[in-house]
Amino acid sequence: MIESINNEKIKNYAKLNDKKYRKETSLFIASGFHLVEEALKKGIVKEILLLNGEKDIYGGATYVSEDILKKVSDLTNNPKVLAICYMPNNNEIKGNIIILDDIKDPGNLGTIIRSAVAFNYDTIILSKNSVDVYNPKVVRATEGMLFNINIIIDDIENIIPKLKDMGYKIYGTDVNGGKLCQNEINKHALIIGSEAHGMNKNIKNLCDENLYIKMNNKCESLNAGVSASILMYELNGRNI
Amino acid sequence: MIESINNEKIKNYAKLNDKKYRKETSLFIASGFHLVEEALKKGIVKEILLLNGEKDIYGGATYVSEDILKKVSDLTNNPKVLAICYMPNNNEIKGNIIILDDIKDPGNLGTIIRSAVAFNYDTIILSKNSVDVYNPKVVRATEGMLFNINIIIDDIENIIPKLKDMGYKIYGTDVNGGKLCQNEINKHALIIGSEAHGMNKNIKNLCDENLYIKMNNKCESLNAGVSASILMYELNGRNI
Asked: Residues of B near A (CB-CB distance < 8 A)?
């Protein structure tokens, strides 16, 4: 049982809200019962911090005070449990791929990862300027699906030619038109551009085809998480 | 030009971040160039507050200081312009309908409204416990599409029998199964449940059919904004 918010271990865990410290330690925070359960299934839990008085259904949890949970978690609505997790070492390219070109909003990234798992995408490739996948807001928005997908952070311009050599068809996205999105039975990588600017031009030029979603002309575009999810649903959801 | 944050009018406008005051005055805030432009198109603008030094492309904008924009807007990243708008009086039931049963997250509501317009839904009906549609976060997330849809706030249990009399088919949603979602050519109302609990049981019993989205069994559900958008896309998006 730890009760002091000045405990060295607790101070270090609280630093995991910082991307830099997450990178140094290869650790991140998963908060709330559902996420902790998903992390346990994957065997990536280093330590569980549980609120004093709660039942230890996990075995071996460290009891802590409410103040400690508040300090370590970034949530205003404090969770009763959180897990300090090892970043999984799942950086293999396999199955269908979703590529994110500078997605900035943590909620959008989390939502896209959740939908990617739902629609059988096995790998996600993020540009180096995308929001960090282990940001606590992202982790929460994935609802634990983060642990069910391979994650690669790399330069997209460099990786696309490699994917083409591996036989992947590269689909870009463009609100201004292209090919109407349809079911795809061959292996493919779908690129989603940033919320503010869409795909970078250099990357657009590398795509085999650009896909779009038909919509009422009063509406210029959809939320990035929604459009990514609809495209994944249409391309791959019917193959489930 | 107004420079004092203690100006009476400014103090009243700042109160529009409160639901109670919005209801009393039938006014709300639209912030940022894009939203102001959409509000102007609809003729619902009462007054435009523009940052000192910016060009008045609107004609008749009131110049204000940065502090005033900060006070009136709820944004941390302050906009250079905002409009005080009259709530539109568009509460007619027409076309296809989306019904929201206690959606709580402003981002989800805004996203759903944006997608509803994209996929040709003309009316949105919100339960009384849903997040307020004129909440500034909701208004922003709609990207101005709020002004292109009829809005009704009512008791869902009471309104469904009326919709049935009008010939609407009532679709519920259920992650645990039902009918696979497919293109629908007849007029319909689609009900989306709350993020935490899905549809209320009384409302579920009133549905003609429950729809679901096929997904990988590692994933229990999708984000509420995403699942609503995919269902609208599938039911109605192909008819555009």
From this structure: 107, 111, 114-115, 117-120, 141, 143, 145, 148, 213-216, 218-223, 225-226, 229-230, 233, 237-238, 240
Give me the total of CB pairs closer than 8 Å, taking one residue from chain A and one from chain B: 92
For chain B, the domains span 8-86, 96-239
Please, which residues bridge with residue A86 across strands? Answer: A27
Q: How many CB atoms lie within 10 A of CB A93?
A: 17
Q: Which residues of A touch B143 (CB under 8 A)?
A: 220-221
What is the CATH number assigned to the segment(s) B96-239? 3.40.1280.10
What pLDDT, in 10s, does the model give residues A74-109?
776 679 999 999 998 888 999 999 999 999 999 999
Query: What three-state secondary structure class fits A5?
Result: coil
Q: How large a percentage of chain B has pLDDT more than 70?
A: 99
Strand-pair category, B45-51 with B81-86: antiparallel
From the candidates B150, B218, B221, which should be mutated to test the interface with A, based on the most A CB atoms within 10 A? B218
Average pLDDT, chain B: 94
* Span A43-66, pLDDT tens digits: 999 999 999 999 999 989 999 999
Chain A residues touching chain B at CB-CB below 8 Å: 107, 111, 114-115, 117-120, 141, 143, 145, 148, 213-216, 218-223, 225-226, 229-230, 233, 237-238, 240
The torsion angle over the Cα atoms of residues A85, A89, A90 and A92, rounded to 10 degrees, is 170
Give the distance from CA B58 to its chain's centroid: 25
Q: Show residues of chain A in contact with B233, CB under 8 Å.
A: 213, 230, 233
Which of A108, A197, A100 lies closest to A155, judged by CA?
A100
Kindly state the average pLDDT of the residues B71-90: 88
Tell me, what's the ipTM? 0.93
For A163-176, write each residue's pLDDT tens digit: 999 999 999 998 77
Residue B41 pLDDT > 70 = yes
Q: Are B213 and A237 in contact (CB < 8 Å)?
A: yes
Please count the other Cβ atoms lying within 10 Å of the Cβ belonging to residue A189. 25
Tell me, rounded to whole angstroms, the distance of Cα A19 from its chain centroid: 14
Nearest to A122 by CA among B228, B212, B229, B219: B219
Q: How is domain A8-86 classified at the CATH fold level?
A: 60s Ribosomal Protein L30; Chain: A; (3.30.1330)
| SS3 (DSSP) at A215 | coil
* A148 residue type, one letter: N
